[in-house]
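Thanks for the sequence, V.! I ran NAD-dependent epimerase/dehydratase family protein right away. Repeating your input here for the record:
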Amino acid sequence: MKPDVLLPQPYLLFLGDTTEPGYAKTAFGLRDWAGERCVGEYACGATVSTGLPFMTPAEARAAGANALVIGVANSGGFIPPSWLAALVEAMEAGLDIISGMHARLRDFDVLRETADRLGRRLIDVRQPPVGIPVASGRPRQGKRLLTLGTDCALGKKYTALALTRAFTARGKDATFRATGQTGILIAGGGIPMDAVVADFAAGAAEMLTPDADAEHWDVIEGQGSLFHPAYAGVSLALLHGSQPDVIVVCHEPGRERVLGHPGYAVPGIGETIELALRLGSRTRPNIRCAGVSLNTAKLDGAAAHRLIVAESERLGLPVADPMRGGAAFDRLVDACLA
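Predicted structure:
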């Protein structure tokens, strides 16, 4: 299913009162991977910006927008009371509301009553499908790649999307498999792994990546981190259930503390690879790490190049920033497909 069939668009991206860029990853992801569907941004006190034109809901509606998308993915997926007036304003301007939060839009009286009065749609995309089975652990045909991270919000989705695009450009049959709300909004389908009951999470990963042609690649968006004090369970279920042949580890240089959990240090790339291979081998004995994806957005080009070269030599693996592309990324793609 395609996003233009499932969801009203174009979108006005809502940033709420967000001050942490990592929590605005839904807005950034839609800007970067579905920019043709985004007319502008709106906020109620946010210090983060996508760089798109700031528009009121009425201005966005006049510009052709059909929905406001909550572009925030905060810890816990909650909708604070401070956002409600802005969401009501959007509906009064003629926009439907699309949310990827854990909180359900219709659970808020003012949103439900306004939507019913005006005939607006309240659309929650963080809804797992019915009938998810308990994981079987049964080997499946086809090839699978999973992106894993040293932390949250540092490039797992972008890396999976970039690799899917690169595989396709090389003539490979490849599908991006979304596991979070932003990826689902981009791809038009997927399973929100963090909304699945824990006992069924690995089964959801199996359901997302079924048997396929032997040469088909499922490129799976990773979630969380195996070292994360809150979300490691989601990461492990995804690793066991997706049974990846290949992993790519994602890391943001310079990030020292876990996002939202400053009492915990970000693990090293090497120990992340070691743990992922050890745990992943339980359901995919021949699992291997093809390389590392670095998010070098905070570095200039020369500094990023030096770091990529140094880390590749240190780790003995291809290292690249997929958003910068170039020869380093080509080597990472080669290693994935080898």
